[in-house]
Amino acid sequence: MSIISINIYDKLNDTGEDEELEVFSHEKREIVNGYNEQLQTYVLINNISPTGYQNIQIINDEIFAQTVRVKGEVVHQVIKQDMYQAYVKVRDKRPRGVGNLVTLCRKDSSLKTKEILEENFGNEYEQHKFDILKIIDAASDVRNARFKVKIETVSSVSMGGTRVHDTQYYAEMLRKGQLSAVIIIMICLSKQ
Asked: What top-level branch of life does the organism fall under (predicted)?
């Protein structure tokens, strides 16, 4: 089982103009296990959502150094075809290319998706930097709201309350770098 995550990238030097993405395919040849193999990359374009994001799927052949037996013969490299899913903002863009690329895959696959789009479409992306302190402060400093904030780290540490960022435990986790990946959950309380 692999963990799928959402990764967000900002497009550098974005003009803010609407784009038209096109189906793309690329082929290259490499020697794999003594054979001249053809490696393919496809970028498939789907519909544009009302929010201006276009769903794309990237199908890519990749060589892995792995010793396996195929039809009774031991080989030391295999070609695996992976599919990556992403969304590219092509309409109603945000200033400075913020959130232009969103990937739905493992972290290493997300980087591969970014590289394929950079190489084949001439774009340059950088990972979006979230100000976690500002998000937590905005989520926990509300007036007359009836909800609690719960923060969960990837290591399954959980804190809840309305001012979790004011605790010593939170400060210690922040100092140790344990808050590099967190989930903020808003728990609504009804008036019942």
From this structure: Bacteria
